[in-house]
Request: fold
Amino acid sequence: MNETRALPESPSPTRPHAIVADEAIRTATSATFGALVLNQAGPIAVEFMSYGCAHCRVLEPVLQQAAAMVKSTEKIVRVNVAIDHELAARYDVNVTPTLVMFLDGAPVARAQGPRPHLPSLLAVLTGPFA
Amino acid sequence: MTRTPRTQPRDTPILLFDDQCGVCRRIARWVSASARDRSGATRVIVRPIGSDPAALRALHPGLDIWDAYATIHLLMPDGSMRLGGEAVAQVLRALRSTAWFAWCFGISILGFRPFQAVLNVAYAILADVRPLFGCDSCGTSSGWVRAIRWVIGSLRAVISKKPRPQVTPHGSPHPIAALRA
Reply:
């Protein structure tokens, strides 16, 4: 917690979400939500989050793992509610993290504050589409 | 997200703060006011972390936005970062109103810095208790803070005769009402 840190050359293995966080999970904004979620066929999970949310931070590495495991069948997209208030309001998201599962552009299920454990998170992500 | 103005000297450290946290905003305002010289120049640039990971990486390639929200970060002109209590000590050294006592954080006895150790503990406690001051963005509290919050919540529920809100297994999800306000 208290240290002086020099510039790292590569992401730390103890921080699996660092640097690569935005590569496995795409970020949607109000402008791109239609193209990335609503106009897409198949299952998509949207994580409504904010970077200042400690629960989202705990969930992040597990979500990255889950995203890698389900990437052949399901896409995962994130929405930063600190920026896109309208999207959060449109889908009645009052807490972060909230996962909303979309199928062919329509919301079919949701989970608030899912457990940051891989098996339960995978169940949340894939359960509605089983 | 605003970038560092060209007029700012490059040898000024940058203090990042959680702009979703009321406690942090108040501290940042105080640092910003205290850091300004009579000439208008500033000894510490104070800026919010914001919501753009790429903008933070542009500021410092080793800066991770999740880490920035978890612990206070001070970006030094030499490219290093000071975190937590070390960042606080460096800021106090830079401010005219606190520099007179901040030298003590550098005192070392057989390699141990007692005043810095006290500051580190003080910072850790403050970081833990931020939710008690109504900080909606601080999320997961440590066990002892959750216990205090539970007692306060229970007392409020008894007084107002309302049921306690549901809590998820790892604590309440982060309410975003404050972000919409």
Summary: Chain A has one domain: 21-129. Chain A is about 30% helix and 25% strand. Chain A touches chain B at residues 1-8, 15, 17-19, 21-22, 50-58, 60, 80-83, 85, 88-89, 93-98, 112-113, 115-116 (CB under 8 Å). The first helix of chain A runs from residue 21 to 24.
